[in-house]
Amino acid sequence: MTRMFVDMWDPAYGASFEGGDGEGPASPSSAQVDTDVEVPAAEWAPIDVPSGARPPDVVFLVDGVRRNDAQIWTAEDDGTSFAGLAASFAAGVVRCDLRNGVADLVSARVGRGLFTASPSVSDLQAGTVRYEIHRINGSGEASKLPAAVQGPLTALEIEISSAARDTGSDGADLLIVDGPLRNRRQLPRTIGYVKTQQKQYLPAALTTVVTTLRPAQRTPVFHLGTVWGGWSWYLRLPGATGAPWSGIVRVECSPDLTVEQAIELAAQSQATLPRFASASYKDPRAPQNLVPIAGLERRLRGMLGDSRVLHRALALATSQTR
User: Which residues neighbour 37 within 8 Å (Cβ) at sequence distance 6 or greater?
Assistant: First the structure.
């Protein structure tokens, strides 16, 4: 008999996992996966929090937000036209002092950019706000411009993360990046936190280990052989509904670490991440949307400013260039 579950995420945010049969990520990944890293694949089973695992005294959580403020088109002297995107983005870092139960926003910055392949345009001043030019290679199709915002946003996250650690850490901290690490793999003592599962990385026999995890349990560490690959593992957060993939997150760390270092980080993630899990009556993306991250996102979106005011300022600024 088929069982059914309601995904606790608000439908406005999509789904906590994407699958065609309700049982989990259905889109298979083409990545080469080594599942014999921590234990042989034939011995895979849920792993409890080790008795000696403790969260660090200080945890930093970094996240970024972005918003498309206006679509822009250029009219070049030779009669050609290029698409452009005026976008705002912001990144911030929350420092959680677990010894004293205190969380503070230690760094937050806003950036604005004009993304286009036009060879002639420069920075755009819209009222008191300046959109810095980011020239895109190729033809710069309008559909590809939103993805170009990720580069400057990631660079901003790296910059403020490093600065926050320099001034607020004794070197025994943990940095949690909301999302895959990608080109942030060089940051020390850092894990990537992937809360939405879209790809099927494991064979069916090992996927059953994921779906049988209890809160704070994890899978063995495995290795992803992708461009941005590295060590990875699945973990279930408390507050899940009982659905096979409810509350499941994928955690990853740098491939530059040794297997032993990756396993140590995996154990530390078990002792750390569950304490930040959100509750469904407070957050529409519970439990995966960590409490400090949710508060940081709200703060950053407020820092982006009023989108309607910026849109009018951009319309006025571009009208004066004609």
Answer: 220, 221, 222, 223, 231, 259, 262
Q: Is the pTM of this model over 0.85?
A: yes
> What does the pLDDT read at residue 81?
92
d(CA 210, CA 162): 33
Has residue 301 got a pLDDT over 70?
Answer: yes
Strand, coil or helix: 53: coil
Paired sense of beta strands 124-126 and 231-236, if any: unpaired
Query: Which residues face 62 on adjacent strands?
Result: 93, 177
What are the pLDDT digits (tens) for 21-41? 445 565 677 778 999 999 999
Q: Compute the Cα dihedral for 23, 25, 31, 34 and give only its sign.
A: negative
189 Rama class: left (phi>0) / alpha (psi -120 to 50) / beta:
left
Taking the C-alpha atoms of residue 109 and residue 124, their distance in angstroms, rounded to an integer, is 19
User: From CA 11, how far away is CA 258, in angstroms rounded?
Assistant: 39
CB atoms within 10 A of CB 62: 25
